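Format is chain and fold; as here:
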Amino acid sequence: MDAKITLSFDASIIDKAKEFAYKNNMSLSRLTEFLYSQLTHNNYQTLEELPVANWVNMVAEGPAEYITKSKTNKKLKSTYYESRKKKS
């Protein structure tokens, strides 16, 4: 059973992901589902344990930055809205 979610990404990332999905004859939703499936079917304990495929390195705009410090929901919302204001 499919469930709907809403995610926000940088527009340029979405464009690249859509192109990648199209070239692989799948929808962006199925690509996202596949990536989440890969994450959840393995027993990774931290983000640093995740294997990074070559194609991820090719489309990356710099080194990966993992922000793992716990934040309250209020702080997360504030951080998100501030980041959106900077892009506008």
Q: What stands out?
A: The two ends are 36 Å apart (CA to CA). The longest helix spans residues 73-87. Residues 75 and 81 are 10 Å apart (CA to CA).
